[in-house]
Amino acid sequence: MAERETLRAFQARLAERLQAAQSRPVAAQWLAVHAGGRACLLPLPQAGEIFPWTAPQPVPHVRPWFLGVANLRGRLCGVIRLAHWLADSPLPATEPVAEDAPAHLVALGDALGVNAALRVDRLLGLRGAGSFLRVQQADAVRPPWLGPCLEDAQGQAWQVLDLQALATESAFLQIAA
């Protein structure tokens, strides 16, 4: 009988905790990364697993931003050099691309339906909306995968990348040179 009451008490506590977790606002919304001197924010629901740098197998006759394919937990993923992909966009670079620096791979989320990973220069942690003071105005026509540009308290600009829009971008999907 005591076990039954203990189980009921446990279930009641668990239900309370689940309800409290659902009503609590999500603190982190983005994974902050640096790629080619650009500070970028990747939406957490669209980003997948983070991997240490794994040298991909080169693929001939591809665009310069496509590094090749890598086996990430048994899944073959195309590896995209995010800094070079962004170099073709209307974003200013603040420092040169360091090819020999330690890097990481951020896989696109499974829900996006694209087996791809982005090579980023540095991981900078998680960020929430409270980390930013204002949205900067965009002065140019921008591709749909470039989200808003946010500014933090130090004046650093952070570019939000819409990975879902990127995964459907025809130029992103066409890797042949």
Describe this structure as you would to a colleague.
The protein is an alpha+beta fold and 177 residues long. It has a single domain (27-173), classed as OB fold (Dihydrolipoamide Acetyltransferase, E2P). The protein has 4 helices and 11 strands; from the N terminus they run αβββββαββββββαα. It has helices at 2-23, 82-87, 163-167, 170-173, and strands at residues 30-35, 38-43, 47-52, 66-72, 75-81, 104-108, 116-120, 122-127, 132-136, 146-152, 157-161. It has a 6-stranded mixed beta sheet. It is globular.
Topology:
Elements: H1 2-23, E1 30-35, E2 38-43, E3 47-52, E4 66-72, E5 75-81, H2 82-87, E6 104-108, E7 116-120, E8 122-127, E9 132-136, E10 146-152, E11 157-161, H3 163-167, H4 170-173
InterPro entries: CheW-like_dom_sf, CheW-lke_dom
GO biological process, one term: signal transduction
Pfam families: CheW (PF01584)
**Between the first and last Cα atoms, what is the distance in angstroms?**
71 Å
Strand tally is 11
Question: What class do helices, strands and sheet pairing give?
Answer: alpha+beta
Fraction in beta strands? 35-45%
The total tally of domains equals 1
In N-to-C order, the SSE pattern is HEEEEEHEEEEEEHH
What's the short story on this structure?
The protein has helices spanning 2-23, 82-87, 163-167, 170-173, and strands at 30-35, 38-43, 47-52, 66-72, 75-81, 104-108, 116-120, 122-127, 132-136, 146-152, 157-161. The chain is of the alpha+beta class.
